[in-house]
Amino acid sequence: MPTYDLVVVHPLVLLSVVDHYNRVAKDTKKRVVGILLGETYKGRVDITNCFAVPFEEDDRDPNIWFLDHSYLEGMSAMFKKVNAKERILGFYSTGPRLREADLDISDLLSNYAESPLLLICEVQPKEMGLPTTAYYPKEQIREDGTQKSQKVFVNIPTEVGATEAEEIGVEHLLRDVKDSTVSNLSSEVSHMASGLRALKSRLNEVQEYLSLVLEGRLPVNHDIMYHLQDVFNLLPNLSVEELLRSFAIKSNDMMLAVYLASMIRRSVASCTYLTCELTSVHGFSTLLVQVRW
Hints:
- It is a single chain.
- By secondary structure, the protein is α/β, with parallel strands linked by helices.
- 50% of the residues lie in helices and 20% in strands.
- The strands form two sheets. Strands 9-8-7-6-2-3-1-10 form an eight-stranded mixed beta sheet. Strands 4-5 form a two-stranded antiparallel ribbon.
- Strand 6, helix 3 and strand 7 form a beta-alpha-beta unit.
């Protein structure tokens, strides 16, 4: 069974998933399911394309569902004629969370992929951050041997990436979406504010996890603890006087630049206003002299 280290989602996949959801399940509680296509290389998975498949499930009984695998095979054969390098990697779902039928769907797709991925795309995200989460099935065996092995989903790090051609296409799309009335400064401030909100939500998740571990409701995950230790080691030591002084000097320099810029802007605006007033008064006086003559 292959091991995955990183999943890279390309822009075309995100656009296709949103289009599929808007056509089929918009303003409903249903989810849509489709097939992921792409390539794998040394643990890196590039999801470059996808297509929708007919899918239905019972709202009352999650174990009752239908996926048209005949349609899947036909579409896969046509996509293979266009790009032979792309192969079936797994399936996507608009979630927004894992469902009970996802493991059964993964078992069905194991006939087409050795270890099918599950990509959950939140079409209407409620929190800041990446709207995608990737999983792959793994056999879990209890150490005491009291239960038989069962499949569980294991999370994989996910990021959004693009080739040079895709970046050019995304830039052209953003030109139509971007609001030209918004200045660069306001957009940068809004981006910083959204980034800070995302950081706050992640810190809240870390705090909630550590609280559950202290209460004994969750087991200790040493990988998470190692990552948290790395984060704490990278934090600056604010008890050092020289570091505090350098931070203060840097902040004062930045605030001085902002103050000078605002003063210059106000001076230029005042000068422009006075120039316009004097020009209008001089023009009115010249007009009166010409009328008298």
